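Hey, resending since the last one bounced:
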Amino acid sequence: MIFKAKGMGYMMVDLKTILKNKAINGWGLFWLVSTPISAIIAYETMITDLSGGEGVSHMIGFSVRFAIPFIFLVVAGSSVQTLFPGAFASWWLRNRKYIGLCFASAMVWQGVFIYSVSTFYRDYYYGDIYLFRDELEGSVGYIFLASMVVTSFHFGRKYITLAQWKLIHKAGIYFLFAYPFSVYWWNLFYYPTLEPFNDPRLLDYIFYWMGFIAFTLRIAAWGKKRLKAASKNTPEATTPLALKALGSILIVAGLVVSATGLHWQKAASGFIESYEFSAEMILWLPYWPLEPFLSLFILGLGTLLATKVRGSA
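The structure tokens again:
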């Protein structure tokens, strides 16, 4: 409940009522968010010199910054409902589809700029931007994005089964999350180690930690569901103390690893890339060698152990 002034007194306002307003639900929410974003990107386009590849390249980075927060919000949506049920969490989950469409609308802008620079400024594109692995990651990402948008509506969903729909959307969310999360991890923990030094920007910190928190909430919600399912099947079962302790240690370790990449990234990369097969995989396998996700893996393993109930699967 919240309050607002009315004359000399106060009137109680129900949060549930506010969150049911059409302006912040469904298509109303989509237009409320996507319209100003498109206006800002369009304005930046008008004041940017697009006569060369550098200007168009600037617009690629500028436009995608408006998309990134929304994929993180999509990732966290169901988890917030599981961990913190309430009116706001219900609103968030109810509008996850339209939050995802806000992400897609900003990505359309980026797609237009990528097409423009690769078509009209080919020498600049292949000389200064193009990397096969980046091309592969981006192309797969757009394929997932298009598939998710089409199957978010009845005209597309009717051609696939529920299992196929879940596979497309879950795999798509993970892949689309991984791209910006890994980019900002590298910005914080790799590029600052190079010469000339590239100091991270405030936005790098905001987007990295926003992505980390979003996925950590997802891991925590998964752990809560495991415990709930186990207690339902075997009400008197408990997690062994040793597993709880080991899981807790790993969770703390994951949190430490998430913030200390500058101290271990070089050693970890050197070890992984010392193998010939790994050095080759870096050239074409998306996200390899996966250092940005090490902290999340450790958190997931810790949660798995800490929620392992004796006698459960």
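Confidence is low (pLDDT under 50) at residues 8-12.

Sorry for the duplicate.
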